[in-house]
Amino acid sequence: GSGKTYTMFTSDHSVKCDEDDLFDASGKSGIASWGIIPRVCAEIFQAIDFRKENVAMGIGASLSLSYIEIYGNEVIDLLRNGSACGHSRVAASRYVLEGSAEVAIESIEDVLQLLNVGEKLKRKGATAMNQRSSRAHTVLILKLTQNSRKTGDKMTSRMFLADLGGSEKLKKSQILHDQSNFIVEKIIHDGNAPQQSSQRENSKNQLQEAVYINLGLLALKNCAEALKYKRRHVPYADSKLTMMLSEGMGGNSRTTVLICGSQEADQTAETIDALKFGQSCGKISKTSTSSNIKMLCSLVKSIEKEISDCEEEIEKHERWEMKETTRIDPRAEGEARTETWNT
Ligand SMILES: Nc1ncnc2c1ncn2[C@@H]1O[C@H](COP(=O)(O)OP(=O)(O)O)[C@@H](O)[C@H]1O
Ligand SMILES: [Mg+2]
Q1: Which sequence ranges form a coiled-coil region, renumbered to this chain (predicted)?
Q2: What confidence score (pLDDT) does residue 102 get?
């Protein structure tokens, strides 16, 4: 292990979830010693509470969490006792993204409790099936729904937090590296695994497992590559993992990739590969803004132009004038009356 799960999930259940303790910056306790997922949740709750307290802002918010595991072609709901998410190839990501795997959360305690539920299930799977837990990908989705009490507008945002399965086990299994690569490519290109010869039959399951993890990682790599070169087609559909993460990878999103490297010498090749992947991700630039934002930006620009045109026009014509007019009122008995008009 290189620390991926540790980085994402670590939390200290003994810490009392008093908000002041939580944000203690000393680093010894509270949030500073937590992993990214519980930390993100705590910060979101802090922001929600702030908005609730400042009633004048008029913003209401609710948060929900989905916690799933992708293992090969299987996508299971870690918060519903490992039940399958959807039934068809496409259905799983739709099932999850449309909210069928959601659980509403209201506090950081809720989150820690749900993480515990998922963790127990992962551990159960790990003993039942050969190291499943470190090989599967875990995806946690936070959905924030905000509504403005003044205008009634609603806004939904999603955050995807993924803990990817390792590729390191592939080499340690008894399968030749190039053999499995061949199979991965075959599956990606034709959708079928090649015929297994009788000698390979023994390690078929093991191989299948390795292929599945790498299928997700390879598809992820290919998507990152396509995004980097701004290709028209990004092969999200090549794996369940990339289908699930597609919304968070391209388009109107921000993505952060964290690479964990092992210090062990015999992991050098994998570590270098991982670093190269990170380097390649760093070259992806934002490809598009959502049409909503584009529309608002152009609207603001056109209004600004109108205002500056008006100002120019005003400046051109604006000056103080003093005009003296002498008007003789016949009724004023020949007396001239001078009136001064200021314009
Ligand atoms: N920064 C760290 N500090 C202390 N222990 C760590 C740290 N990173 C990882 N570990 C420990 O190393 C082991 C492997 O880490 P893990 O996160 O499970 O690896 P991975 O998910 O990459 O396979 C775990 O027992 C974990 O507690
Ligand atoms: Mg792990």
Answers
A1: 293-320
A2: 93
Q: Alpha carbon of 30 to those of 13, 181, 224: distances in Å?
A: 10, 44, 35
Q: What is the pLDDT of residues 18-60, one digit of tens each?
A: 555 566 655 555 677 889 999 999 999 999 988 888 877 788 8
Q: How far apart are the CA of 140 and the centre of ligand 2, in A?
A: 14
Distance CA 139, CA 96 (A): 10
* Type of residue numbered 253: S
CATH code for the structural domain at 167-288: 1.20.58.980
Residue nearest to atom 15 of ligand 1 (CA): 3
The top-scoring range by mean pLDDT among 51-60, 97-106, 120-129, 208-217 is 97-106
- Going by alpha carbons, the residue nearest to atom 9 of ligand 1 is 3
Q: How many other C-beta atoms are found inside a 10 Å radius of the C-beta of residue 161?
A: 20
The number of residues in the chain equals: 343
Ligand 1 centroid to Cα of residue 5, in Å, is: 7
Closest alpha carbon to 245 in 222, 228, 227, 220: 220
Return residue ranges of the chain for CATH 1.20.58.980.
Answer: 167-288
The residues, ordered by sequence, that sit 6+ positions from 222 with a Cβ below 8 Å of its Cβ are 188, 235, 238
